[in-house]
Predict the structure.
Amino acid sequence: MANRSSYPTGDGAPEAEKNAGESENTYILRPIFQQRFRPSVVKDCIRSVLKEELTNAEYSPEEMPQLTKRLSETVKDKLKDMGFDRYKMVVQVLIGEQRGEGVFMAARCFWDADTDNYTHDVFMNDSLFCVVAAFGCLYY
């Protein structure tokens, strides 16, 4: 591996001087640590939104479609403000009536395990339950 600046070109000028006007390739394949999707930080964000929006909420089938959209938009906007540059955020919200029944939720994704991640949080009160899953997928 040769050091570019130590070898002169045919006219005697070092190659580094000839290429001084050209920019280096700055494309970064992996995000730096501060810009990575961090599940613990995202979970705290989701938890604060759910607490703020649903603490005194009552289940009403007519109002739930608007509430799920509003919650997903709020969570997505807060995640964008957290500085996860080059990440596509996918937020999924599920709200159901609290009847003491069980529910299972699953997701499958095809992604890069080095850069992509997800987290989820569950909120429950006497009237409803809410599950929010947030997925962060890096744009290459």
Q: What stands out?
A: The mean pLDDT is 85.
